[in-house]
Amino acid sequence: MSVISDIMQYNREFVGNKEYEEYLTDKYPDKKMAILTCMDTRLVELLPKALNLRNGDAKIIKNAGAILTQPFGSAMRSILIAIHEMGVQEVLVIGHYGCGMAALDSEKMVEKIKANGIPDLVLQTLERSGIRMERFLKGFDNVQDGVMQSVEIIRNHPLLPAFIPVHGFVMHPDTGELELISEGYEFTKPR
Q1: Which leading EC class covers this enzyme (predicted)?
Q2: I need a labelling partner for 127 at 20 to 30 A (CA). Which of 66, 88, 109, 170 fits?
């Protein structure tokens, strides 16, 4: 069986047995928070459990390294929609130790891209269009710096209300232990 066949079979049983009922909620986060975190597989179940989150408690936005590289990308758009449309009142950026984005080597990544069949011409065209692979594929030297980069982009965003606190954390991916890097309340202004 293929992965898709397995998924479809399981899904039919899941729906047929009404297992979804324990997850019913609405689109507004009960704990009024948005979390930008890493897509690392170790955090899929660990992060919500370590934060005492249930389905419906928070908007969780994931990408490689919990990194915002620009203030007008899709992850930042998701944060702004969560605030302005979904009632989010706090933002958490949660990186983790052992992240694959730590010291990511963009040159080696480009070599892997080529090895996977992407022609040099495509990469050259992107470079001529202003896409710099060393910037596009840039990681961070340490996870605290990566978290703070994202925290600062969010805090300084022109569309972020001044009363929304933005916090930074690093999580241990084995235990779920959180380390507070930056508490955002001191940077907010009253509503």
Answers
A1: lyase
A2: 66
Q: Identity (one letter) of the amino acid at 92?
A: L
Burial of 101 (0-12, 13-18, 19+ CB in 10 A): buried
Report the Cα–Cα distance between both ends of the chain, in Å, rounded.
56
Domain positions in the chain are 28-103+141-183, 105-138
How does strand 58-63 pair with strand 90-96? unpaired
| Backbone phi and psi for residue 75, each to the nearest 5 degrees, phi listed first | -65, -40
Q: What is the C-alpha to C-alpha distance for residues 74 and 82, in angstroms, rounded to an integer? A: 12
Residue type, 182: S
Q: What is the pLDDT of residues 47-78, one digit of tens each?
A: 999 999 999 999 999 999 999 988 999 999 99
DSSP string, 128-176: HTT--HHHHT--BSSHHHHHHHHHHHHHT-TTS-TT--EEEEEE-TTT-
Q: Where are the beta strands (DSSP E) in the chain?
A: 33-38, 58-63, 90-96, 166-171, 178-182
DSSP-assigned beta bridge partners for residue 166: 91
User: Residues within the annotated binding site for Zn(2+)?
Assistant: 38, 40, 96, 99
28-103+141-183: CATH number: 3.40.1050.10
